[in-house]
Amino acid sequence: MKIFLDTAHLPTITQWLATGLIDGVTTNPTHLSKEGGDSTQLVKALCAQLGTGDVSIEITEHTPEKVYAQAQAIAALAPNVVVKIPCHKEYYGIIKQLVLEGISINITLVFSLMQGLMMCKLGVKYISPFVGRLDDIDVDGISVLHQLRNMIDQYHFNTQILAASLRDIRHLHAAIEAGADVATVPSAILEKAVTHPLTISGMVQFNADWDKLGIKQFP
Ligand code: G3P
After folding, report:
1. Mean of the pLDDT values across residues 84-110?
2. Is 23 a domain residue?
3. What pLDDT, on the 0 to 100 scale, is given for residue 63?
4. Is residue 217 domain-resident?
5. Does residue 121 have an active-site annotation?
6. What Å distances lie between residue 73 and 7, 58, 69, CA to CA?
7. pTM over cut 0.85
8. Which of 44, 66, 84, 216 is catalytic?
């Protein structure tokens, strides 16, 4: 299972890359807006920092014609760019065309099995079901992950499930159990995922016991 960081904050990404855990990054217009400055330069810096890891960058245009041209321009920014396009029927035709051109696409704002199936048929690299936003409207987001997993396995599609809008550890845990190919998580959730109080207290105890020996060098 791959872990992506859901942020455009370069220092946070750099910090987590050092752990060896991060396979990619997802951004959206909200993330880029938070960082401010020159978004094109930031995106290039993010892609360079990730090396070969996928970096999802979302389109900001609206008409299919403009989204198509913008998607091509975003894809040309770096070899590891994945273009994020919302799952709206207006864009189906250009999504297919971009896939045929060999551009990696991450379909965002996916909320149903039906939307997922349609995007798998178009051959996109990732679909991003938004778990937390489904929970927000009292629909079980995790059950949609399971539905998508079963559908992709049943029909042998190549599209990967990128579980997004994960708000807490319970969501991340459930995404793993549902067999998501990728989970994209904010730094705060990843921090919780790699921390366990029993590991900390165990280390404290081992250190205290070791210190009783009074050995200065070992081995
Ligand atoms: O990856 C998508 C994510 O950023 C959306 O999360 O919490 O705004 O629903 P949220």
Report:
1. 98
2. yes
3. 98
4. no
5. no
6. 21, 12, 6
7. yes
8. 84
In a domain, 216, yes or no: no
Region of residue 45 (left: phi > 0; alpha: psi -120 to 50; beta: else): alpha
Is 57 among the domain residues?
Answer: yes
In testing the pocket of ligand 1, which one of 165, 167, 172, 185 has its CB within 8 Å of the most ligand atoms? 165
174/183 Cα distance (integer angstroms) = 10
Which residue segment(s) compose the domain that 103 sits in?
2-211
Rounded distance, CA 25 to CA 38, Å?
Answer: 18
| Residues in contact with 151: Cβ distance below 8 Å, sequence separation at least 6, in sequence order | 113, 116, 117, 120, 157
By alpha-carbon position, which residue is closest to atom 1 of ligand 1?
Answer: 164
The pLDDT score that the predictor gives to residue 217 is: 95
Taking CA atoms, 51 is separated from 60, 80, 175, in Å, by 24, 8, 26
Atom number in ligand 1 closest to CA 133: 9
**Count of domains for the chain:** 1
